[in-house]
Amino acid sequence: MDAGLAGLLGGVIGAAVGAVGATASAWITGTKAEQQAAIQSETQLRQARLQIAAERTRALRESRKSAYLGFAEGCHLVHSALSDAGIKLGGIAASDPPEEREERRQAARRLWNEARTLNRRLDRLQHIVFMEGPSEMGAAAQAATAALVPHFAAVLNWLHAVDREAETPQHAAEQDTAHTEAYGKLLQFLHAAADTTLPDLHDR
C-alpha cells in the first residue's frame, strides 16, 4: 500500500477512534452528572421533608402547650375561688357578732358563685384540650373537672350549714379533703401536659 494512502487511512482510523472515545467519555460524564443531580435532588427533598416535619411537630407542640396551659389556669382559678370560700367559712365562729357572721357568709357565697361561673368556662377549655389531643390529655382534663364536683358540693353543704347555724368541724374536714383530691387531679394533668409537650414529641 502506498505510504501516503496508509498514512491517510491511519489518520482516518485514529480520528474515528478518537471520536468514539470522546463520545463515550461524554456519555459517561453526562450519566454521572445526571446521577449526581438525582442524588442531590433526592437529598434536598429528604431534607425539606425533615424540615417540614420538624416545623409541624414544633407547631403542634406549641398549640398543645397553649391549650393545656389555658385549661390549667382556668382550673386553678376555680380552685382558688372555692378555697377562698372555704377560708371565709372557716373564719366563722359561734361567738361572732351577727353582722360579722353575715358578712363572711355572704363573701363565701359570692366566691362560690364566682367559682361556678369560672367552672362554666372550663367546658370550652376542656373541649380545646380534647381537640388538640392526644386522648390521654383529654382524659386527664376530664378527670380534673370531675374532681371539682365534690369540692363544689362540700363548700355548698358548708354554706347551707352556716345558713342554719349548724356548721361543725366535719364540714371543714370534708372541704379540705375535696380540695386536696381535686387539686391532686389538676397536678396529674400538669405532669401529663409536661410529658406530652417535651421537645421529642412524636405525632400521636
SSE sequence, one letter per element: HHHHH
Unreliable parts: none
Q: What class, by secondary structure content?
A: mainly alpha
User: Considering DSSP H and I runs of 4 or more, what fraction of the residues is helical?
Assistant: over 70%
Largest sheet: number of strands, sense, barrel closure: none
End-to-end gap: 85 Å
**What's the Cα radius of gyration?**
38 Å
pLDDT averaged over residues: 84
Please identify the oligomeric state: single chain
Based on the model shown, name its key terms.
204 residues; mainly alpha; 5 helices; rod-shaped
Question: What does this molecule look like?
Answer:
The structure is a single chain. The chain has helices spanning 3-90, 98-132, 135-146, 148-163, 169-196. It has 204 residues and is mainly alpha-helical. The chain is rod-shaped, with a radius of gyration of 38 Å. The mean pLDDT is 84.
